[in-house]
Design goal:
DNA-binding; globular; 20% strand; 5 strands; Sig_transdc_resp-reg_receiver; 4 helices; 125 residues; transcription regulation; transcription; 45% helix; alpha/beta; CheY-like_superfamily; five-stranded parallel beta sheet
Length: 125
């Protein structure tokens, strides 16, 4: 699965990249702005998205566009999970910072299973 890392804090972005790669996924990025993320959306299956990016509190708006326009699954990874509220429709998960390797890997595994089920149901049509 192709995982886009959308995070403006370099150390956290590198940690997310390492976890995703160790879980067997290809990574795209890290990217730190909405514009960069949208440029890579077509090549991504899932995105790990922070709410606060280098261009402001734009993660929620980005997530909406990734989900609706590009069919990218979104997992929020944020230090402000309360700002997601009850979630954003279509987002798969909200993970609080600090996170564990297992929490990220588990969310990616669920995203991969969901994608496989979706792809197999499309193939059956």
């Amino acid at each position: 699965m192709k995982v886009m890392i959308v995070e403006d804090e370099n150390f956290i972005a590198l940690e997310l990249e390492r976890i995703a790669q160790e879980a067997g996924h290809q990574t795209i990025g890290p990217v730190s702005t909405v514009e960069q993320a949208l440029a890579h959306a077509k090549r991504s299956d899932v995105a790990l998205v922070d709410l606060s990016l280098s261009d402001g509190m734009s993660g929620a708006q980005l997530a909406r566009r990734l989900i609706d326009r590009h069919g990218v699954d979104v997992i929020f990874v944020t230090g402000s999970p309360e700002n997601v509220g009850h979630g954003i429709e279509g987002a798969l998960d909200v993970i609080s910072k600090p996170f564990t390797d297992e929490r990220i890997a588990s969310a990616l595994s669920r995203a991969e299973e969901r994608r496989k089920k979706f792809d197999s149901s499309k193939a059956a049509l």
